Write the structure tokens for this entry.
Amino acid sequence: MALTAALLANGQLPASKGTLYTAAAAVIIKTITLVNTDSVARTVNLYVKRTTSRRIIPVNLSLNAGVWMGLDDAIVLSAGDLIEGDASAATVVDYVVM
């Protein structure tokens, strides 16, 4: 089976936990990037959900204004698994899942 690099999902984190990506088949997430586009610091949360949501970054991680963070740990998902996230304010933290 050949592996293909792809942009899997992108958008802006919601203010309450929401689905960022749903795996249609087995997939390896190589990076998740977050960028705070706001003029003040915001807190962010990321989760993997199989049957229960589990955090993949520290609780309410503070992301300063104009700062980005990258999660470079490989995450293996099966069909139906989710990547979820939230921020302390909607539409101010951009995300990209590759």
